[in-house]
Amino acid sequence: MSRIPDAFIDDLLARTDIVDVINARVPLKRQGREYAACCPFHDERSPSFTVSPNKQFYHCFGCGAHGSAIGFLINYDRLEFLDAVEELARAAGMEVPRETRQRNRDGDIDPMFNMLAAAERFYRQQLAGNDAARAYLDGRGMDEAIREQFGIGYAPDGFGVLKDTLGTDERRIRLLEKTGMLSRNDRGHVYDKFRDRVMFPIADRRGRTIGFGGRVLGKSDGPKYLNSPETPLFHKGRELYGLWQARQANRELTRLIVVEGYMDVIALFQHGITQAVATLGTATTPDHAELLFRSAPDVYFCFDGDAAGRRAAVKAMESVLPRMRDGRQAFFLFVPEGEDPDSLVRAEGQAGFDARLAAATPLSEFFFDTVGEDINLGSLDGKARLAERARPQLDKIPDGAFADLMRQRLTELTGVGARTATPDTHVPARRARSARPVNAPRRSLVRTAILLLMQRPALALDLPETYRFTALRQPGIPLLTELIAIVHSRPDITTAALLEHFADREEGDALQKLAMIDLPGEEATWRVEFIDVIARLDRQTLDQRVDELQAQVAEGGFAALSAEEKAELRQLQSARR
User: Residue 161, Cβ neighbours under 10 Å: how many?
Assistant: First the structure.
């Protein structure tokens, strides 16, 4: 999540009042021990958005949005994590650790941003005076408003126009080269990288220009489209063209449409579809997939219907499957041969393109069509092959309803899997495989312990240094063990900081729900209950080990036990009595 020390995050959240942070942006009203408002992340008439001053987090019962003060700034102000931390640190009069800032930003970062902003201004000025470039944009249906919205410009023909304008000294030439705006030949001469091209600035998630894409205007020996190279600011596998504009155009992003090119994005915006983004000359990466789903719950991948488009769709599918937590959806739309989103939306308009999106293929259907290609499901061999192909991919899907339904669909198609299902679907695979069959302990004890910790994390500090229950084979035990370890390593951690720690993990939503429970009683009674629950879990762990050793005796007599196991059994039986 960050390289900022955990202790600093804990201290920052302890000094920050989330009520003040949110109330400055969304007016809150007191309701009992909490505050309420209409949710800023979705449209509603009656307030379902609550803020807890005691636990220092927010939660919307309507759309499920939740988080700490840091998470609120990320989602409401659309900041990156480090920027949100710095914003809260300034308000609290704290200094983000210098080492952290240096690791995240070298000394040239701000000057590089400034240089790219100057290049964008230069290209836009050049567009205003170039009739050929303006005629090209007119022919593609781009009006002045859309040009302004996307900052479109023109790189003039010539090897040194940008360099001579902005590279007025050696340091500035070095910055232009470091940002990818200049190229260097074998003889060491530097020259403009982009020449006689319509220029598309690429913005980061704060709207700052981090690179460019250039579309050739006249004849050229180079590629039709040329992107900035990888730089300290620009990593094409982690950026999406148009995402900044989509966030600015939509109060709430409920969907994103992934297309292949700059012109596709702009054409969709021009026709009122303001949720389009594009990868930057690369296949959909796992980083792209995570960014897409962090921005919107529904993602539509729009590709050409040819073989290359199908391959791109498969790459996208492989990237999104491990990120298909409940509540997320992915769809695939293949455009007819000879068409692209640009030409389709021009011919059919917004309504026509939306109709195509509504008929897009869901991820589940596309997955089984893809893995089942060239397989005859009418034979046992074919069903076995489908199961063999599908299982490794399905194992990557996070636990939840979608994963369960996908495995159920595989069983419906092949008959494979019905006999292998186990009730412990949330136990990590490596523990489930090593586990021996024992009587399953009651799950409510673990849930109660985690619930109590989410009310008051400091309860974990009352535990002795050693406890048995970590060996208990039961869903939730690894999470409980991790929570206790976190509290011991960060004794002052708050509920909000714990939630922030798990914000990007699949356990985060479940912990948020437990933290939202208004538990009766006070800390003293919680402490007694927590210690009792841990003691009962320790006892169940003892019983589990005794049962294991006695099972070995039942199978092969006492000779089946080693000397150490015999001594352990006597000790455990004595302890149990």
Answer: 17
Q: Give the C-alpha separation, 462 to 487, whole Å.
A: 11
User: How many other CB atoms are there within 10 angstroms of residue 91's CB atom?
Assistant: 16
- Tokens coding 294: 């962090």
Helix (H) or strand (E) holding 9: helix 6-15
What gap in Å lies between CA 502 and CA 482, rounded to an integer? 11
Give the 3-state DSSP-derived string for 398-416, with helices as H, strands as E and coil as C: CCCHHHHHHHHHHHHHHCC
Q: How far apart are CA 444 and CA 537, in angstroms?
A: 11
What is the pTM assigned to this prediction? 0.62
DSSP state of 373: T
Q: Strand pairing of 276-278 and 255-259?
A: parallel
Residue 251's pLDDT is what? 79
> What span, in angstroms and rounded, lies between the C-alpha atoms of 522 and 265?
55
Q: How far apart are CA 535 and CA 217, in angstroms?
A: 74
**Position 473, amino acid:** R
At 392 the three-state DSSP class reads helix
Beta-carbon neighbour count of residue 94 at 10 Å?
16
For residue range 245-273, list pLDDT tens digits in order: 998 999 788 999 999 999 999 999 999 99
Question: How many residues comprise the chain?
Answer: 577
Cα 302 from chain centroid?
20
